[in-house]
Design goal:
Length: about 300
């Protein structure tokens, strides 16, 4: 998640007329260069996610599936459903663990959004692959790796001003409902990386089946984050810190990089302060770890950290 300026964007449909054919090649070239401007083409980013998920050293790898959660198609990578999840015993409790990706390549500069938010490196997917928990699922963010059901390209607003909009939260909740029904879950653990931590908190609000929440370098207070980096607030997105008190009953471990200038520990502390006194919220600063470096190696150990309530 980069600190970005979230101004409104207007798309102008110019009448190119007779010039359309002559400049078509230039437009196509510009798009290709923009998509690869940060060192990885779109196809390379797709291939990397498939490669990471197919690492057979990690519990046999994860298989790919696209979940329709209107108006989005959310790309998922899933473990095979454990046998106990298929048990017909209604008294059997079975929990799923869901990893939510960060904002990905949302911006190519502080003021210029990318043309596609698919991550250059799917960091939440790497966290999921470092996890030995049997029943785990990775969910990409809207417009990453997949499209939406309105036809054409995903609107840019869903990785800029509206990345945490109510309809995005509703789509994730619908996806969780589908996963819960298909995989026999009775409860869900949420793990969010960066902006995925934001989404984990927002999705948890209003549900009664969330067993716990973990965030890694999570932006838990988007208003505090915007003010810290002196960029525009996101009025079309929901700030999870506004519901911190309501979420305070859910066990939460929030891991913050001690060397992370993008989402420093002050953001998590701002969220915790708004939650009030709660035994369930823990903030654990990891010294020497940055926003996108150092987490994978220590993740198995961090998963062993107990919740405090």
């Amino acid at each position: 998640m980069a600190a970005v300026r979230n101004n409104k964007f207007t798309v102008y449909n110019e009448d190119m007329g007779a010039f359309r054919a002559s400049i078509f090649f230039c437009i196509a070239l510009f798009i290709a260069l923009a998509l690869s401007g940060c060192g990885a083409s779109l196809s390379t980013r797709y291939d990397l996610a498939d490669k990471v998920a197919q690492d057979t050293r990690a519990q046999g790898g994860l298989y790919k599936e696209v979940i329709h959660a209107s108006p989005f198609y959310l790309t998922a990578y899933l473990s095979a459903v454990p046998m106990q999840a298929n048990a017909l015993n209604a008294d059997t409790s079975h929990m799923g663990r869901v990893y939510i990706e960060g904002d990905g390549l949302a911006w190519v500069s502080k003021t210029r959004p990318s043309l596609n938010p698919t991550p250059i490196d799917p960091y939440a997917l790497r966290l999921a692959m470092a996890d030995i928990y049997a029943d785990r699922v990775y969910l990409a963010r809207p417009c990453q790796y997949s499209n939406w059901d309105k036809g054409g390209l995903c609107p840019m607003k869903y990785w800029t001003t509206h990345r945490y909009a109510p309809e995005v939260v509703a789509a994730y909740s619908a996806a969780l409902n589908q996963l819960k029904a298909k995989r026999g879950w009775t409860s869900i653990e949420l793990v969010g990386y960066s902006g995925g931590g934001t989404m984990a908190l927002l999705v948890a609000h209003g549900r009664n089946d969330i067993a716990s929440i973990r965030s890694v370098a999570g932006n838990l207070d988007i208003d505090a984050h915007s003010r810290l980096h002196e960029v525009d607030l996101m009025p079309y997105s929901i700030n999870p810190a506004n519901f911190a008190a309501d979420l305070a009953r859910i066990p939460q471990n929030h891991f913050v990089g001690g060397s992370d200038p993008i989402v420093p520990v002050a953001i998590a502390r701002s969220y915790a302060q708004k939650a009030g006194r709660s035994e369930c919220i823990q903030i654990a600063e990891q010294m020497g770890v940055t926003h996108g470096r150092g987490w994978i190696d220590i993740w198995p150990r961090l998963l062993q950290k107990p919740f405090s309530c």
